[in-house]
Amino acid sequence: MNKKIPLKLIIDTISNEKGLSEDFIFNAIEAALISATKYKYSFDINVKIKINKKHGTYITYRLWTVINDPAINEKIESPYTEITLSVAKIENCNIKIGDKIEELIESIQFGRIAIQAAKQVIIQKIKNAERELIAQDFKSKIGHILTGTVKKINRDNLILEFDNKAEGILKKNDLLQRETHRLGDNVKVYLYNVITYKKGPQLIVNRSSNEMLIELLKMEIPEIEEGIIEIKAVARDPGSRSKIAVKTNDGRLDPIGTCIGVKGTRIQTISNELYGEKIDIILWNSDSTQFVINSIALTEIISIIVDKDTKTMEIAVSEEMVPQAIGKNGQNIKLASSLTGWKINVISIKEAKNKEQMEIKKYIKMFSKKLNISEHISTILVNEGFRSLEELAYIPKQEFSKINKIDEILIYELREQAKNLLLIEEKSKNIKQLNDLQKLQLDKQIYNKFIENNINSCNDLIKTDINILIKITNLTKEYCDNLIIKAKKFLS
């Protein structure tokens, strides 16, 4: 049953030249012996090999899996690898379903064929290990720039080769505008994923991502790589133009000049790599308005209106500066918006004045109508900066004297009138809300429970979680669902 393996021979002929561990060799020999043993049989069996590493001997077992006894007239599905529980218990009464039985069988001779088989197994294992090492090596480089050689060009992709070890796919829509390549060209790319296949790793790369530009900046500008200059935001139209927002905590350093380099050498090197892509270095600012002004990169801005609610800025510039501010096909304004996160509208000073006049007329009309005052008085209020009833209603008394051309007594009366109007509007709003809830024809008890829990309108009802409604009303889910449906119908 015991057979001896010429371990010295195997180790000398295979192991030393490959620099493999002893465990690796024995695993390969074991796999080869199992394969050779199975080959002896005309039917499929399960085999286990136990190798004595010290003495170079091995024992072979045939394995059986214990299964439940089949029903009458049913056969065992795998009679060469399975044994029924009743038969197995003849030898071992404690055996259970799923246990393995080891049957000692004659071991094969480890001759020339077995040695060759072991060698083939080892070679295959080496190939697999090498592929895995290559894959792990490239996975450690995800997020960095690599240089590949164009190996093949098809309709949708460029196939690149890296160090004769792996292939990468560069999709044509991940190239830059006007960028073309020939076979054998060396191309810098950004590695963002590695997919492992049986034949080896496949690298997924691109040249159009923001990350590609950031990595090029790190390579060319040591202050960015070292963290002295921080990249805060990037906006890019790949191959055409990009904007980079930077900042530094080192007050002695000019971040823009440092990035551009002496005579523009640093930024020009990056631009050349990106087929002439124009790169604007913008000074980042924590103040959103100043950051937007910096990103537009204009020498003169007439005015800027900020709407924080819609995150919009309207910038007025001279007539001749409008095309420059907007840029070709709106590129400058689009990149500035993307960089800052604000929607930016650029208008001429003439448009700004016209818009301002229209706004002034709107406010004059509003005050005249709501306060029942002359257009002359309304105009004075607007010229003093008032734009709403709230602003007028809550003006401090000590500010009365600062309003020119209107008597303090009249200002006081207008302030009180504005307060009363706001109270009336608030009451009307509440009445409308109550009325809209009452139109659901609710039971008085349920209606009161809603009011107690600050559900004052159909809109409040719709926004309230169904489980809370059930708890408030002590009614069924179906009833509360129907209430919500009725409220939605009423609002629509």
Structural class: alpha+beta
Low-confidence residue ranges: none
Helicity, in percent? Answer: 40-55%
Proportion of beta-strand residues:
15-25%
Number of alpha- plus pi-helical segments: 19
Quick one: biggest sheet? 5 strands, mixed
Q: How far apart are the termini?
A: 88 Å
| CATH architecture assignment name of the largest domain | 2-Layer Sandwich
When the domains are counted, the total is: 5
- Backbone CA Rg: 40 Å
Can you describe what's shown?
It is built from 19 helices and 16 strands. It has helices spanning 7-18, 22-40, 85-91, 112-139, 210-220, 222-225, 255-260, 265-273, 288-296, 322-326, 331-340, 349-371, 375-383, 389-393, 408-438, 444-452, 458-463, 466-473, 477-491; strands spanning 3-4, 46-52, 57-67, 82-84, 100-105, 145-153, 157-162, 166-171, 186-197, 200-206, 229-237, 241-248, 278-283, 303-307, 312-317, 343-348. A hairpin with a 3-residue loop joins strand 7 and strand 8 (166-171). Helix 2 crosses helix 4 (112-139), helix 9 (288-296) packs antiparallel against helix 11 and helix 12 (349-371) packs across helix 13. The relative contact order is 0.04. It has 5 domains: 3-131, N Utilization Substance Protein A, Chain:P, domain 4; 141-208, Beta Barrel (OB fold (Dihydrolipoamide Acetyltransferase, E2P)), CATH 2.40.50.140; 210-284, GMP Synthetase, Chain A, domain 3, CATH 3.30.300.20; 297-383, K homology (KH) domain (GMP Synthetase, Chain A, domain 3); 439-491, DNA polymerase, domain 1. 46% of the residues lie in helices and 22% in strands. The strands form 4 sheets. Strands 1, 2, 3, 4 and 5 form a 5-stranded mixed beta sheet that branches. Strands 6-7-8-10-9 form a 5-stranded mixed barrel. Strands 11-12-13 form a 3-stranded mixed beta sheet. By secondary structure, it is α+β, with helices and mostly antiparallel strands.
